[in-house]
Predict the 3D structure of the following.
Amino acid sequence: MYRLLNEYKVFKQCPRDMRILLITNMLYAWVLPIVEIFVGAYIMRSCGKPAYVAMYQLAMYAGIVFTSVINGWLLKNIKVSYLYCAGILFSAVSMVGMMMLENLGIVELILIGFIMGAASGFFWTNRYLITLNSTNDDNRNYFFGLESLGFTVGQIAVPLIVGAVIANLQGKMLFGIEVDANIAYRIVTVFATIIAILACMNILRGNYSNPSSSKFLYFKFDSLWVKLLGLASLKGMVQGFLVTAPAILIMKFVGEEGTLGLIQGISGGVTAVLVYVLGRVTKPKHRIFVFFLGLIIFFIGTVVNGIMYSALGVVIFVLCKVIFQPLHDLAYFPIMLRTIDVVSKKEKRNEYTYILSHEIGLFLGRAGGLLLFLLLAFGISEDFALKFALPIVGGLQLLSLPLAQHIIKKCDSYENK
Protein backbone atom coordinates (compact mmCIF):
# COMPACT_ATOMS: atom_id res chain seq x y z
CA MET A 1 0.00 0.00 0.00
CA TYR A 2 2.87 2.36 0.81
CA ARG A 3 4.41 1.72 -2.61
CA LEU A 4 1.07 2.32 -4.36
CA LEU A 5 0.61 5.60 -2.46
CA ASN A 6 4.13 6.60 -3.44
CA GLU A 7 3.37 5.90 -7.12
CA TYR A 8 0.19 7.97 -6.82
CA LYS A 9 2.25 10.87 -5.41
CA VAL A 10 4.56 10.60 -8.44
CA PHE A 11 1.49 10.77 -10.70
CA LYS A 12 0.15 13.83 -8.82
CA GLN A 13 3.47 15.62 -9.37
CA CYS A 14 2.98 15.49 -13.15
CA PRO A 15 1.59 18.57 -14.95
CA ARG A 16 -2.22 18.83 -14.76
CA ASP A 17 -2.82 18.51 -18.51
CA MET A 18 -0.61 15.43 -18.65
CA ARG A 19 -2.59 13.82 -15.80
CA ILE A 20 -5.90 14.56 -17.51
CA LEU A 21 -4.64 13.02 -20.75
CA LEU A 22 -3.42 9.89 -18.95
CA ILE A 23 -6.79 9.42 -17.21
CA THR A 24 -8.60 9.88 -20.55
CA ASN A 25 -6.38 7.32 -22.26
CA MET A 26 -6.90 4.85 -19.43
CA LEU A 27 -10.67 5.23 -19.74
CA TYR A 28 -10.40 4.68 -23.48
CA ALA A 29 -8.31 1.59 -22.73
CA TRP A 30 -11.60 0.01 -21.55
CA VAL A 31 -13.35 0.89 -24.83
CA LEU A 32 -10.68 -0.15 -27.35
CA PRO A 33 -10.74 -3.91 -26.47
CA ILE A 34 -14.55 -3.93 -26.87
CA VAL A 35 -14.13 -2.47 -30.36
CA GLU A 36 -11.57 -5.18 -31.14
CA ILE A 37 -13.92 -7.88 -29.82
CA PHE A 38 -16.59 -6.67 -32.24
CA VAL A 39 -14.08 -6.68 -35.09
CA GLY A 40 -13.25 -10.27 -34.19
CA ALA A 41 -16.90 -11.28 -33.94
CA TYR A 42 -18.11 -9.60 -37.13
CA ILE A 43 -15.08 -9.86 -39.39
CA MET A 44 -12.38 -12.35 -38.44
CA ARG A 45 -14.78 -15.20 -37.63
CA SER A 46 -17.01 -14.43 -40.64
CA CYS A 47 -14.24 -14.25 -43.21
CA GLY A 48 -11.28 -16.04 -41.62
CA LYS A 49 -9.32 -15.99 -44.95
CA PRO A 50 -6.01 -14.08 -44.71
CA ALA A 51 -6.75 -12.18 -47.96
CA TYR A 52 -10.04 -10.86 -46.53
CA VAL A 53 -8.39 -9.87 -43.26
CA ALA A 54 -5.67 -8.12 -45.30
CA MET A 55 -8.28 -6.17 -47.30
CA TYR A 56 -9.91 -5.05 -44.07
CA GLN A 57 -6.56 -3.96 -42.64
CA LEU A 58 -5.52 -2.06 -45.80
CA ALA A 59 -8.86 -0.24 -45.81
CA MET A 60 -8.34 0.60 -42.13
CA TYR A 61 -4.83 1.95 -42.78
CA ALA A 62 -6.18 4.06 -45.67
CA GLY A 63 -8.93 5.40 -43.36
CA ILE A 64 -6.30 6.50 -40.83
CA VAL A 65 -4.37 8.49 -43.46
CA PHE A 66 -7.58 9.98 -44.91
CA THR A 67 -8.86 11.33 -41.59
CA SER A 68 -5.35 12.47 -40.64
CA VAL A 69 -5.47 14.85 -43.61
CA ILE A 70 -9.04 15.94 -42.84
CA ASN A 71 -8.05 16.48 -39.21
CA GLY A 72 -5.32 18.91 -40.28
CA TRP A 73 -7.90 21.17 -41.94
CA LEU A 74 -10.34 20.85 -39.05
CA LEU A 75 -7.64 21.96 -36.58
CA LYS A 76 -7.78 25.43 -38.17
CA ASN A 77 -11.21 26.06 -36.60
CA ILE A 78 -11.94 23.29 -34.07
CA LYS A 79 -10.19 22.69 -30.74
CA VAL A 80 -7.92 19.67 -30.67
CA SER A 81 -9.69 18.29 -27.57
CA TYR A 82 -13.03 18.28 -29.46
CA LEU A 83 -11.47 16.38 -32.35
CA TYR A 84 -9.92 13.94 -29.88
CA CYS A 85 -13.40 13.38 -28.42
CA ALA A 86 -14.73 12.80 -31.94
CA GLY A 87 -12.22 9.97 -32.40
CA ILE A 88 -13.20 8.35 -29.09
CA LEU A 89 -16.95 8.58 -29.76
CA PHE A 90 -16.56 7.57 -33.40
CA SER A 91 -14.91 4.31 -32.28
CA ALA A 92 -17.82 3.48 -29.95
CA VAL A 93 -20.60 4.49 -32.36
CA SER A 94 -19.03 2.58 -35.28
CA MET A 95 -19.81 -0.68 -33.44
CA VAL A 96 -23.53 0.11 -33.71
CA GLY A 97 -23.25 0.32 -37.50
CA MET A 98 -21.29 -2.93 -37.55
CA MET A 99 -24.07 -4.76 -35.73
CA MET A 100 -26.59 -3.72 -38.38
CA LEU A 101 -24.73 -5.61 -41.12
CA GLU A 102 -26.12 -9.08 -41.66
CA ASN A 103 -23.83 -10.13 -44.52
CA LEU A 104 -20.16 -9.33 -44.96
CA GLY A 105 -19.06 -9.06 -48.57
CA ILE A 106 -15.88 -7.44 -49.85
CA VAL A 107 -17.57 -4.02 -50.18
CA GLU A 108 -18.93 -4.14 -46.61
CA LEU A 109 -15.57 -5.36 -45.34
CA ILE A 110 -13.68 -2.49 -46.97
CA LEU A 111 -16.29 0.01 -45.76
CA ILE A 112 -16.06 -1.21 -42.15
CA GLY A 113 -12.27 -1.15 -42.32
CA PHE A 114 -12.25 2.40 -43.66
CA ILE A 115 -14.70 3.61 -40.98
CA MET A 116 -12.72 1.97 -38.17
CA GLY A 117 -9.54 3.50 -39.61
CA ALA A 118 -11.23 6.90 -39.78
CA ALA A 119 -12.07 6.67 -36.07
CA SER A 120 -8.51 5.59 -35.27
CA GLY A 121 -7.11 8.45 -37.35
CA PHE A 122 -8.95 11.08 -35.33
CA PHE A 123 -7.98 9.39 -32.07
CA TRP A 124 -4.26 8.76 -32.67
CA THR A 125 -3.29 11.96 -34.49
CA ASN A 126 -4.94 14.21 -31.92
CA ARG A 127 -3.54 12.05 -29.13
CA TYR A 128 -0.02 12.58 -30.51
CA LEU A 129 -0.61 16.33 -30.77
CA ILE A 130 -1.99 16.65 -27.23
CA THR A 131 0.79 14.40 -25.86
CA LEU A 132 3.41 16.51 -27.65
CA ASN A 133 2.10 19.71 -26.06
CA SER A 134 1.37 18.40 -22.55
CA THR A 135 4.60 16.45 -21.94
CA ASN A 136 8.30 17.14 -22.23
CA ASP A 137 11.29 14.95 -23.03
CA ASP A 138 12.01 14.30 -19.33
CA ASN A 139 8.58 12.88 -18.42
CA ARG A 140 7.68 11.04 -21.64
CA ASN A 141 9.22 7.73 -20.52
CA TYR A 142 6.94 7.83 -17.47
CA PHE A 143 3.94 8.90 -19.59
CA PHE A 144 4.22 6.02 -22.08
CA GLY A 145 5.11 3.51 -19.36
CA LEU A 146 1.98 4.31 -17.34
CA GLU A 147 -0.19 4.48 -20.45
CA SER A 148 1.11 1.08 -21.58
CA LEU A 149 0.20 -0.37 -18.18
CA GLY A 150 -3.35 1.00 -18.50
CA PHE A 151 -3.86 -0.31 -22.04
CA THR A 152 -2.49 -3.75 -21.17
CA VAL A 153 -4.75 -4.11 -18.12
CA GLY A 154 -7.67 -3.18 -20.37
CA GLN A 155 -6.60 -5.68 -23.03
CA ILE A 156 -6.51 -8.47 -20.42
CA ALA A 157 -9.51 -7.60 -18.22
CA VAL A 158 -12.10 -6.32 -20.72
CA PRO A 159 -12.41 -9.48 -22.89
CA LEU A 160 -12.85 -11.56 -19.72
CA ILE A 161 -15.52 -9.19 -18.36
CA VAL A 162 -17.36 -8.89 -21.71
CA GLY A 163 -17.30 -12.66 -22.18
CA ALA A 164 -18.72 -13.21 -18.69
CA VAL A 165 -21.42 -10.55 -19.16
CA ILE A 166 -22.56 -11.94 -22.52
CA ALA A 167 -22.56 -15.54 -21.22
CA ASN A 168 -24.59 -14.60 -18.12
CA LEU A 169 -27.10 -12.38 -19.93
CA GLN A 170 -28.00 -14.80 -22.73
CA GLY A 171 -31.27 -16.61 -22.13
CA LYS A 172 -32.34 -14.34 -19.27
CA MET A 173 -35.35 -12.00 -19.24
CA LEU A 174 -34.64 -8.27 -19.20
CA PHE A 175 -37.56 -5.81 -19.22
CA GLY A 176 -39.79 -8.60 -20.49
CA ILE A 177 -37.47 -9.50 -23.38
CA GLU A 178 -35.38 -12.66 -23.63
CA VAL A 179 -31.75 -11.68 -24.11
CA ASP A 180 -30.00 -13.31 -27.07
CA ALA A 181 -26.38 -12.79 -28.28
CA ASN A 182 -27.25 -9.67 -30.33
CA ILE A 183 -29.05 -7.98 -27.43
CA ALA A 184 -26.16 -8.86 -25.10
CA TYR A 185 -23.71 -7.26 -27.55
CA ARG A 186 -25.93 -4.15 -27.70
CA ILE A 187 -25.89 -3.87 -23.89
CA VAL A 188 -22.09 -4.08 -23.92
CA THR A 189 -22.04 -1.38 -26.62
CA VAL A 190 -24.14 0.93 -24.42
CA PHE A 191 -21.64 0.55 -21.56
CA ALA A 192 -18.73 1.16 -23.97
CA THR A 193 -20.42 4.35 -25.20
CA ILE A 194 -20.94 5.55 -21.61
CA ILE A 195 -17.22 5.03 -20.85
CA ALA A 196 -16.33 6.85 -24.09
CA ILE A 197 -18.52 9.81 -23.04
CA LEU A 198 -16.81 9.90 -19.61
CA ALA A 199 -13.41 9.94 -21.35
CA CYS A 200 -14.56 12.87 -23.50
CA MET A 201 -15.87 14.79 -20.48
CA ASN A 202 -12.52 14.29 -18.78
CA ILE A 203 -10.32 15.47 -21.68
CA LEU A 204 -12.42 18.64 -22.01
CA ARG A 205 -11.20 19.65 -18.52
CA GLY A 206 -7.71 20.13 -19.96
CA ASN A 207 -6.27 23.24 -21.56
CA TYR A 208 -4.84 22.02 -24.86
CA SER A 209 -3.88 24.45 -27.59
CA ASN A 210 -4.06 24.03 -31.36
CA PRO A 211 -0.97 24.57 -33.53
CA SER A 212 -0.25 28.27 -34.08
CA SER A 213 0.22 27.91 -37.84
CA SER A 214 -2.65 26.65 -40.02
CA LYS A 215 -0.49 25.32 -42.88
CA PHE A 216 0.33 21.66 -42.42
CA LEU A 217 0.88 20.13 -45.87
CA TYR A 218 4.56 19.98 -46.84
CA PHE A 219 6.46 17.55 -49.05
CA LYS A 220 10.09 18.45 -48.33
CA PHE A 221 11.62 17.97 -44.90
CA ASP A 222 14.87 18.27 -43.00
CA SER A 223 17.04 15.16 -43.40
CA LEU A 224 16.55 14.33 -39.71
CA TRP A 225 12.79 13.99 -40.20
CA VAL A 226 13.28 11.92 -43.36
CA LYS A 227 15.31 9.47 -41.26
CA LEU A 228 12.54 9.37 -38.65
CA LEU A 229 10.07 8.54 -41.45
CA GLY A 230 12.36 5.63 -42.36
CA LEU A 231 12.15 4.48 -38.74
CA ALA A 232 8.34 4.81 -38.90
CA SER A 233 8.21 2.69 -42.08
CA LEU A 234 10.25 -0.06 -40.40
CA LYS A 235 7.85 0.03 -37.43
CA GLY A 236 4.89 -0.09 -39.82
CA MET A 237 6.37 -3.04 -41.71
CA VAL A 238 6.42 -5.27 -38.65
CA GLN A 239 2.87 -4.15 -37.77
CA GLY A 240 1.70 -5.13 -41.27
CA PHE A 241 3.35 -8.53 -41.03
CA LEU A 242 1.91 -9.19 -37.58
CA VAL A 243 -1.68 -8.65 -38.72
CA THR A 244 -2.07 -12.11 -40.24
CA ALA A 245 1.05 -14.14 -39.35
CA PRO A 246 0.33 -14.85 -35.63
CA ALA A 247 -3.31 -15.78 -36.32
CA ILE A 248 -2.29 -18.24 -39.07
CA LEU A 249 0.46 -19.73 -36.90
CA ILE A 250 -1.94 -20.23 -34.00
CA MET A 251 -4.55 -21.91 -36.23
CA LYS A 252 -1.87 -24.06 -37.88
CA PHE A 253 -0.01 -25.38 -34.82
CA VAL A 254 -1.82 -24.47 -31.61
CA GLY A 255 -5.44 -24.82 -32.73
CA GLU A 256 -7.13 -23.75 -29.51
CA GLU A 257 -6.59 -20.04 -28.87
CA GLY A 258 -7.88 -20.09 -25.29
CA THR A 259 -4.75 -21.57 -23.69
CA LEU A 260 -2.43 -19.34 -25.71
CA GLY A 261 -4.64 -16.36 -24.88
CA LEU A 262 -4.20 -17.09 -21.18
CA ILE A 263 -0.41 -17.31 -21.60
CA GLN A 264 -0.43 -14.03 -23.56
CA GLY A 265 -2.56 -12.39 -20.88
CA ILE A 266 -0.24 -13.39 -18.03
CA SER A 267 2.94 -12.48 -19.94
CA GLY A 268 1.31 -9.23 -21.12
CA GLY A 269 0.48 -8.29 -17.53
CA VAL A 270 4.03 -8.98 -16.35
CA THR A 271 5.42 -7.02 -19.33
CA ALA A 272 3.11 -4.08 -18.61
CA VAL A 273 4.41 -3.84 -15.03
CA LEU A 274 7.99 -4.11 -16.35
CA VAL A 275 7.36 -1.35 -18.90
CA TYR A 276 5.82 0.88 -16.23
CA VAL A 277 8.85 0.37 -13.98
CA LEU A 278 11.20 1.10 -16.90
CA GLY A 279 9.20 4.23 -17.74
CA ARG A 280 9.37 5.29 -14.11
CA VAL A 281 13.12 4.80 -13.55
CA THR A 282 14.72 5.30 -16.97
CA LYS A 283 15.94 8.62 -18.37
CA PRO A 284 16.02 9.80 -22.00
CA LYS A 285 19.61 8.49 -22.26
CA HIS A 286 18.36 4.91 -21.61
CA ARG A 287 15.91 4.81 -24.53
CA ILE A 288 18.31 3.22 -26.97
CA PHE A 289 18.90 0.33 -24.55
CA VAL A 290 15.12 -0.25 -24.16
CA PHE A 291 14.80 -0.02 -27.95
CA PHE A 292 17.54 -2.62 -28.43
CA LEU A 293 15.99 -4.91 -25.81
CA GLY A 294 12.64 -4.95 -27.61
CA LEU A 295 14.19 -5.50 -31.06
CA ILE A 296 16.46 -8.37 -29.99
CA ILE A 297 13.60 -10.15 -28.17
CA PHE A 298 11.43 -9.95 -31.30
CA PHE A 299 14.27 -11.16 -33.55
CA ILE A 300 14.94 -14.13 -31.26
CA GLY A 301 11.23 -15.02 -31.37
CA THR A 302 11.15 -15.01 -35.19
CA VAL A 303 14.32 -17.12 -35.44
CA VAL A 304 13.07 -19.67 -32.88
CA ASN A 305 9.77 -19.94 -34.77
CA GLY A 306 11.62 -20.43 -38.07
CA ILE A 307 13.90 -23.15 -36.66
CA MET A 308 11.34 -25.06 -34.60
CA TYR A 309 8.24 -24.36 -36.74
CA SER A 310 6.05 -26.15 -34.21
CA ALA A 311 3.47 -25.41 -31.52
CA LEU A 312 6.23 -24.64 -28.99
CA GLY A 313 7.96 -22.35 -31.51
CA VAL A 314 4.68 -20.48 -32.05
CA VAL A 315 4.17 -20.02 -28.30
CA ILE A 316 7.72 -18.67 -27.91
CA PHE A 317 7.26 -16.33 -30.91
CA VAL A 318 3.92 -14.98 -29.65
CA LEU A 319 5.36 -14.39 -26.17
CA CYS A 320 8.33 -12.54 -27.69
CA LYS A 321 5.90 -10.44 -29.73
CA VAL A 322 3.85 -9.62 -26.62
CA ILE A 323 7.01 -8.44 -24.80
CA PHE A 324 8.47 -6.64 -27.84
CA GLN A 325 5.58 -4.31 -28.64
CA PRO A 326 5.33 -2.30 -25.38
CA LEU A 327 9.13 -2.15 -25.01
CA HIS A 328 9.47 -0.89 -28.57
CA ASP A 329 6.73 1.72 -28.08
CA LEU A 330 8.21 2.91 -24.78
CA ALA A 331 11.38 3.96 -26.61
CA TYR A 332 9.97 4.76 -30.05
CA PHE A 333 7.27 7.33 -29.21
CA PRO A 334 9.46 9.58 -27.01
CA ILE A 335 12.12 9.53 -29.78
CA MET A 336 9.46 10.49 -32.33
CA LEU A 337 8.02 13.32 -30.21
CA ARG A 338 11.46 14.70 -29.40
CA THR A 339 12.34 14.73 -33.11
CA ILE A 340 9.12 16.69 -33.79
CA ASP A 341 10.11 19.16 -31.05
CA VAL A 342 13.52 19.69 -32.67
CA VAL A 343 12.56 19.72 -36.35
CA SER A 344 9.41 21.88 -35.95
CA LYS A 345 11.51 24.58 -34.26
CA LYS A 346 14.25 24.30 -36.88
CA GLU A 347 11.87 24.47 -39.85
CA LYS A 348 9.37 26.79 -38.04
CA ARG A 349 6.40 24.65 -39.05
CA ASN A 350 3.13 23.43 -37.55
CA GLU A 351 3.78 20.36 -35.34
CA TYR A 352 0.84 18.60 -36.98
CA THR A 353 2.82 18.61 -40.25
CA TYR A 354 5.08 15.95 -38.78
CA ILE A 355 2.28 13.95 -37.14
CA LEU A 356 0.52 13.69 -40.52
CA SER A 357 3.66 12.70 -42.42
CA HIS A 358 4.46 10.19 -39.67
CA GLU A 359 1.09 8.50 -40.28
CA ILE A 360 1.92 8.33 -44.00
CA GLY A 361 5.30 6.76 -43.15
CA LEU A 362 3.57 4.18 -40.95
CA PHE A 363 1.01 3.50 -43.70
CA LEU A 364 3.71 2.81 -46.29
CA GLY A 365 5.42 0.39 -43.92
CA ARG A 366 2.18 -1.32 -42.86
CA ALA A 367 0.89 -1.72 -46.42
CA GLY A 368 4.32 -2.89 -47.60
CA GLY A 369 4.64 -5.47 -44.82
CA LEU A 370 1.10 -6.77 -45.30
CA LEU A 371 1.40 -7.01 -49.10
CA LEU A 372 4.83 -8.65 -48.81
CA PHE A 373 3.43 -11.33 -46.52
CA LEU A 374 0.51 -12.01 -48.87
CA LEU A 375 2.83 -12.06 -51.91
CA LEU A 376 5.11 -14.63 -50.27
CA ALA A 377 2.21 -16.67 -48.88
CA PHE A 378 0.32 -16.92 -52.17
CA GLY A 379 3.27 -16.57 -54.58
CA ILE A 380 5.58 -19.13 -52.96
CA SER A 381 3.84 -20.80 -50.03
CA GLU A 382 2.27 -20.01 -46.69
CA ASP A 383 4.90 -22.13 -44.94
CA PHE A 384 7.70 -20.14 -46.59
CA ALA A 385 6.15 -16.83 -45.49
CA LEU A 386 5.72 -18.04 -41.92
CA LYS A 387 9.03 -19.87 -41.62
CA PHE A 388 11.54 -17.64 -43.44
CA ALA A 389 9.95 -14.23 -44.01
CA LEU A 390 9.39 -13.50 -40.31
CA PRO A 391 13.13 -13.84 -39.42
CA ILE A 392 13.92 -11.61 -42.42
CA VAL A 393 11.51 -8.95 -41.13
CA GLY A 394 12.93 -9.39 -37.61
CA GLY A 395 16.42 -8.89 -39.04
CA LEU A 396 15.32 -5.78 -40.94
CA GLN A 397 13.95 -4.40 -37.67
CA LEU A 398 17.48 -4.52 -36.24
CA LEU A 399 18.33 -1.77 -38.77
CA SER A 400 16.11 0.45 -36.63
CA LEU A 401 18.73 0.41 -33.87
CA PRO A 402 21.59 2.33 -35.60
CA LEU A 403 18.99 4.58 -37.25
CA ALA A 404 17.37 5.45 -33.90
CA GLN A 405 20.82 5.99 -32.36
CA HIS A 406 21.73 8.38 -35.18
CA ILE A 407 18.43 10.29 -34.78
CA ILE A 408 19.02 10.72 -31.02
CA LYS A 409 22.56 12.05 -31.62
CA LYS A 410 21.30 14.46 -34.28
CA CYS A 411 18.59 15.76 -31.93
CA ASP A 412 21.28 16.33 -29.27
CA SER A 413 23.50 18.23 -31.71
CA TYR A 414 20.60 20.41 -32.95
CA GLU A 415 19.56 21.30 -29.40
CA ASN A 416 23.14 22.11 -28.37
CA LYS A 417 23.66 24.58 -31.22
In short: The mean pLDDT is 84. The chain has two domains: 10-206, 220-417. The CA atoms of residues 323 and 357 lie 28 Å apart. The first helix runs from residue 2 to 12.
